[in-house]
Amino acid sequence: MPYGPETTNKDGTLNEVGQKVERCVAQVMKDPNFKPKTGQDKKEAAIAVCKASIIRAEEVNKQLQK
Amino acid sequence: MEDDKLKDKEQEELRALLDTPDEGTFSDEDDQDNKGDQDEDKSSSEYDDTGDDTSSKNTKNNPEAGNGSEDNKDKAKSDTASGEEDEDKDNKDRWHGKSREEVIKAYESLEARIIALENKADSENKTDKDDTATDEKADEKTESDENEDNNPGIPSADELQKMTPTDFAKWVLGRIDEGVKRTIETQEKIRDAVHQEISDARKEHPLQDPDYRKMVLAIIDSASAKGTTIPLKDACSQVDSFLGKHKGQSENLSDEEKSRLKKAKAQVESGAGAPTQPDGSDAETKRIQKALAGSGSKSPLGGLGI
């Protein structure tokens, strides 16, 4: 579970959300302007930011589909 | 004859009295000395007679002869005993010849000294304990801070060692419950926030339209792919601007369109109405077009505001 239980399938592979998070993290890590808070790892911060935005987007998608 | 016998007896008694010392103790010592001399003579005679058996017999006679260490111990004991005896003698001599008041004063001064020494020792122990306690607290704090920084919520090694297996299982289950609760809470928060956002946006934007919704979702997804979060209202406004249906702008345009339509209507009514000739030239249409195309239309659906 590299990004949490909501990003993996039962067999341990990344699901759609996990793949989105992975792509997002790679993109954020390339961004030179992205600076985490003091005392925080850059990758951890990138994962947190990407997860929050992607999970919210998924929730918006779910609720708009209803 | 009897007188002679009596005289002899008296003389013998006198001789006996003269031969014996004045005190009886000396006679005993002399007897012991004589006995010792006799023993020594006996032992010397035995050494002379037996030859090789001297060592064994010597040990028999003196069982401590072969153990030099025991002799030394005995000597040390005797030395310490003698030292203690000397101290006792000194202490006895210390109080010897002193008056009762002097003894009492000396005893009181000794008691005062003992109390002072005890207080000093207590204060030193307290300071040592305080120092050690502060050091231990500081160490514990640094260790706990490090543990919290490295592994938040995980107990220290000492606490883990104190735990029984059931305690550890309870702790693990508690941790799992906490994690589940936390994730559920965050999910609920996100759900509520999104629900509120959608209900607000639906009042102003046609989110029931599937095409419109797809465009909004595409904008939100593209933003989330970059790790940024765009509010739903902003996404809707972007879609509106893309479609040219921004609410305020459309109202302004409709006013312009209305004024242009009024002008066009007036021109048509004033004489530029219907063409007199059925196969008339395009002059009338060009005139109407000129009238309508005064400011030009920015709407993708034409200049009539349709």
TrEMBL record, chain A:
UniProt superkingdom: Bacteria
Protein's UniProt name: Uncharacterized protein
Organism field: Candidatus Daviesbacteria bacterium GW2011_GWC2_40_12
Taxonomic lineage: Bacteria, Candidatus Daviesiibacteriota
UniProtKB/TrEMBL annotation, chain B:
Bias kind Basic and acidic residues: ranges: 1-16, 33-45, 89-101, 119-141
Biased composition (Acidic residues): 20-32
Domain of life of the organism encoding this protein: Bacteria
Annotated region (Disordered), positions in chain: 1-101, 117-165, 244-306
Compositional bias per record (Low complexity), positions renumbered to this chain: 292-306
Descriptive protein name: 5' nucleotidase
Protein species of origin: Candidatus Daviesbacteria bacterium GW2011_GWC2_40_12
